[in-house]
Amino acid sequence: MKMKRLFVLGLLVVMAVSAFGFQPVGVHAASPVQIDFWGGWTGPDGDVMRGLVEKFNKEHPGITVNLMTLQWTPLFSKFIIEAKGGNPPDVLAMHPFELGQFASMGVLDAKQVKSVKVKKADYTPNIWQGSFYSKVQYAVPLDFHTHALYYNKELLDKAGVASAPQNLEEFIKAGQKLTIDKNGKNAGEAGFDPNNVIQYGLGMNMNHHAFYQWFALMYQQNEKTFNEKTTRTSFNNNKAAKAWGFLQDLVFKYNIVPKGEKAPFDDFRAGKVAMLIDGPWQLPVLEKSNLKFGVAPYPQIFQKKAVWAAAHILTFPVNKKADASRKAAAVQFVKWLSDNSAEWAKSGNIPSKMSTIAETKKLPGREAFINMMSYAHFLPPLPKAAQVFSSVAPSPILTAAQDTLFNNKKPLDIVAQMKKEMDSILSAP
Predict the structure, then answer these.
(1) For residue 7, is it within any domain?
(2) In the list 91, 190, 290, 425, which could disulfide-bond 37, CB 3.0-4.6 Å?
(3) pLDDT tens across 367-379, in order?
(4) Does residue 165 have a cis bond before it (omega within 30 degrees)?
(5) Ramachandran angles phi, psi of 179, nearest 5°
(6) Are 260 and 198 in the same domain?
(7) Entry's InterPro entries (predicted)?
């Protein structure tokens, strides 16, 4: 009977491991189960993630998580090579718009996601949907991030701007008041000299983040950018031109954004621009500075509130070489990271689990981002996202941004070219 009981007990253990259960893994093993975790956090956010990984390792002596960080583009290039060679990481972080590319390649394991047992009720609908591709959940949500409006409190007070602007009229008016030439005239006054400006009203990135603003402004006009099957663009050219035209006018018509701006965040910290469109990843640096800053939601320029959003999501690459204990350890780590994601807010990213919101709001500047959760929009998970949304030139979105903010081309021509390039990529075999 004793031998029979031992056999049954052993069988139950094997079944639990095979099902990727959450019992402690590797506690009694001769050496810890090793799992590899890859992400693109190469700044201060990487330090926060390393701290979380170290905490997990201390609390789970039977598992050792090895974190590797690279810039996102080389990270994914390395992943594709290692996946083809049969040596992918056990856990891979990415963004929702990249999910379609890798899911369609068949390199992500949806079964392990089910083992984490994430609940829809723990997230807002848009964040939950960001972990799916083609109705299959391939990822566990970790955080989200959007654009917001940073502002220098002292410069706004000095200019008589009572609060951060939140609509089109307020935005232009405040931007002009805060743009001052060498003679002390602002951009809304007669005699203002746009060629000798000592302080601008607004700074913003003129790279792929300009496209992200365009994307938000399309949703503010109730306009989606791609068809349901993501096989072609579907946006109205006039609305698209209106969105690019607004961004262009900030530079060339209203003169409130520096022409050819290269380092808007540095300009904001130095007081060269009074407001800044940027993301929560800048918060840790600003918190350590002496700058008196505030953060407001991204302004509503058109008919409705909308803002671009991205997120970090956690996936499980297909790995035929990994045994059951290694897969179980990866599931256990991802579940732990999700459950303990409030600490991740220190990186500037906003944890996406609703249970973390109250704690995250206590940190400086986070509330504005949290308040936009319900109307934040992710880029769609195109199978060819790496080409369509590439942040490296040449790409449709960078060409459009540069033609808008550097070359001052006609918005309708910019839209026609961008649509042509995107549709060409999406229709290619």
Answers:
(1) no
(2) 91
(3) 999 999 999 999 9
(4) no
(5) -100, 115
(6) yes
(7) SBP
* Count of structural domains within the chain: 2
What is the pairing mode between strands 313-315 and 139-141?
A: antiparallel
Per-residue pLDDT tens over the stretch 77-115: 999 999 999 999 999 999 999 999 999 999 999 999 999
Domain with 349, as residue range(s), is 33-142+311-378
Examine residue 39 and state whether it is found in any structural domain, yes or no: yes
Do 265 and 319 reside in the same domain of the chain? no
pLDDT of 15 higher than 90: no
d(CA 172, CA 356): 35
Are the beta carbons of 143 and 311 closer than 8 angstroms?
Answer: yes
Please indicate, yes or no, if residue 385 is contained in any of the structural domains: no
Amino acid occupying residue 280: P
Q: How many Cβ atoms are within 10 Å of 98's Cβ, its own excluded? A: 24
Same-domain check for residues 116 and 152: no
In a shared domain, residues 413 and 356: no
What is the overall mean pLDDT for the chain?
93
CA 429 to CA 427: how far, in whole Å?
Answer: 6
